[in-house]
Amino acid sequence: MRQSIRLAVFGSLMVLFAGCGVLDNPMEWFRGGNQSTFDVKGPVARQQLDLFYVTLWVTLFIFVTVGGVLAYTTFRFRQRPGDSDNPPPAQTHGHPLVEIGLIAGAVFLLVIIAVPTVRAIYDIYEVPDDDDMLVIDVTAYQYWWAFDYPDEDVTTANEVAIPVGRKVKFNLRTFDVIHSFWVPRLAGKIDMIPNRSNWLWLQADEPGQYWGQCAEFCGESHANMKFRVFAYEEDEFQEWIEHQRSDALEPDDDDELAVEGADLFRRRGCMGCHTVQGTGAAGMAGPELTHFGSRKTLGAGMADNTEENLFRWMRDPDGFKPGNLMALDPQVQNLTDEEIEALVAYMKSLK
Ligand code: CUA
Known about the structure:
It is a single chain. The chain is α+β, with helices and mostly antiparallel strands. It has a domain at 256-349: Cupredoxins -  blue copper proteins (Immunoglobulin-like, Sandwich). It contains 10 helices and 14 strands. A hairpin with a 4-residue loop joins β11 (275-276) and β12 (281-282). The protein starts with a helix and ends with a helix. Dinuclear copper ion binds next to loops.
């Protein structure tokens, strides 16, 4: 019996830890991976992490003190053989010094937590007064993200670029249900609520790739609703903006497969849902694809943007990413493997 309980506990711990990836790569797990709020790279996330540590140390102190006193008294005043023969100890009621001391101590500890908390709330909830600030409008859709740069005249999807060292304000809206915008290493999350606009600001201190994630359950593919933030140095960022602003590349005439794919893209209704700037495709129901070939990921940060994954995605959209709208399109369901290969070639040509 005891053996089977031990096995069951051990088995469930294995499953639990496997979920954290600790078995695959213990160091990576310890560091926290790509969505770690402990490996912060911007002032907002850092302030939030500092706040976490202040709260952690104060509550740890309370835990150790209260737990220590409890353990000490339990041991020190435990019942011993022969105790029942003795008269009960003197009974007391109230102790002003102890009571005032406990209240004062509790208030003091709460103040230690409250002061930095209130300061952080104001710092984070105030739009920074900064002429350099970049504004990006984000719209969440069931399982993907649209990013607009209103001042730069750029629209993109699922991958967003920001300049290092500059404050960025994200205006947050949703097209359908409640989602939540979260870039763990740069800033805490803010919900995107229908018919309301929210916002948050953040800043990246180092160039790099930061993972984003929808943090509010929004349907079957909530967990697959990711995005990437690319932080570039200023000149690289300006190059990126220029490139995004340009029209889509026409596929090379030599690349017959891509030319055929471009034709299929028009004929098989893809353009009804997707925009490819400069080609007449101006659909708004799905992600913008003008420079899709230059993106690192597909399916809203779900997988690497490889030909193989792209093929799997179009072959069986619902199997790849359950609940997504493209899976419902009969035109997509009826594509032959040859047609999908042509569409993949076209997509990859959209650098
Ligand atoms: Cu969108 Cu969860």
